[in-house]
Fold this protein.
Amino acid sequence: MSRPEDTLRRRSDRNGWLLSAPALALLVFAASGPLMIVLVYSFLEKGQYGNVIWEFSLDGWVGILFSRDIFDGTLNLADAHMTIFWRSVKLSLLTTLITFTLGFPTAWFIATRPPAQRALWLFLMTIPFWTNLLIRTFAIGEILRTEGLINTALLKTGLIAAPIQMLYNEGAVLVGMAYVYLPLMVLPLFAAIERFDMRLLEAAYDLYASRMQVLRHVILPIVKPGIVAGSILVFVPSLGAYVTPRILGGGKNMMIGNFIELQFGQGRNWPLGAALSMTLLVIVTVALLFYVRAINRSGSGGGSHG
Amino acid sequence: MAERRFSVAGLPGFATIALGVFVCLYLPIVTLVVYSFNGGPSIAVWQGFSLHWYTEAWGNRAVQDATLRSLIVAAWASAIATTLATMAALGTTRRAAFRGQTFIYVMINQPLMVPEIVTAVALLIFFASIKVATGYQGLGYLVAAHSAFCIPFAYLPIRARLEGMDMTLETAAADLYATPWQTFRHVTLPLLAPGIAAGAMLAFVISLDDVIITEFVKSGGQDTLPTYMLGQLRRAVTPEVNAISTALLALTVLLLTAFFLLTRKRN
């Protein structure tokens, strides 16, 4: 490479950094940087009225799994915490499963419409995607409420004598999360199915494959990147969900997100809250790395399937 | 169609499930909108059309304040995020890959990956100490936080637009002795404008909708519309919340439609 080209290249690189610098500075100030502070806080002693005392302590991290007995100071497995973790993981996995079961046929339906109609169906799926999560949670809550639409209709038709309590339990949180996160599953699935070559289906049917075999051995392997993408996009926010469990679950059905908030509110245990936040961040990062690996693998190996 | 042909792309039951999904997706939203016009205080028994709950909400001082605050924060956040995202997009596209480019991508998209509750907690801790140190309690914290998480949303459409533009016109301008600034001002910027407008709208909608980070960052008496609604949901629910939701919903749909029209023109 000649010298002037080198100089130009270096100047271009420098401009790239200079132009990006203000955005990076703001992100460090109000997004990434504070995460480091959370990490530091997780290793400090808790203050009596919230906040922290600047002394090193592992209590925050120990507190994730164990609680200290008030009388003899022994550590016991914290059952209440386990219940919350288990509920979060269980509801997030179920949400992913439900949204996939309903989302796959929906995405397939949209992708197989005639092109003129397809844009409209897609737009119908995009509107809820961009609509305020709080409003959508609130909307589904109004339907499930004791004085809501379902109960009113059932009472009127005489099918039930008294309203059914549908809100404030795990079922309500699950229905709510499946409702609000469904578009996150459908949109990447649609993107994958749209690229799918329908002639492969003709080939498979010509070779006497049954519907089930076609679905299992032709369609699902090829749209796998979309399935992985949709599942991650649903699983990650489900695990960190805060608004939906708070509104639909009531106080008793906390998930990790609400549990973290509790530590900074009434719980007054900032180090524990910080340690929990870091744990959630690690789980999410692992899930995202898994996703990147799955995408890369299917991207490079995709050709051999065809 | 009289005869039923075997369709290769058809899978039994899929259309039924899909239509069911669309009905379930819209039923709650439509119900919410319909009952915002209810004459009575019920969210499930229809008592005649009325704009009562809209006038009720509009006359409510807390709602007025929250609406104004939401719009101010969203306007600032959208303006700041779009400016910074435009610069970053210019810095990271249409040039040879440079060392650290991946790092810049990861940093810009970081708000999309970190769970919102974690960022909210981090900002709570960080801003609380700044509040103590400086005594400043204003809207600046909300604007800074919103601007930061809006950056990736503004960045993506702008970058997409830039990647679709080749350097021919800029090169021509440079050949005609235009300074880099003149080239940018009179060639690049007008071509990029639809992407910037799309990014700004997306950022505005995202800021307007935010609940969790706002809830943690706001000082006392700094409710935005979403956090005001979240607070209201603890009490008995009247169609007033439906009316506020419907107004917010209408604004979102309006901005999104504009966004789609802007991005579609490109093709």
Observations:
- Chain B touches chain A through 86 residues (CB under 8 Å).
- The two ends of chain B are 34 Å apart (CA to CA).
- Chain B is about 75% helix and 0% strand.
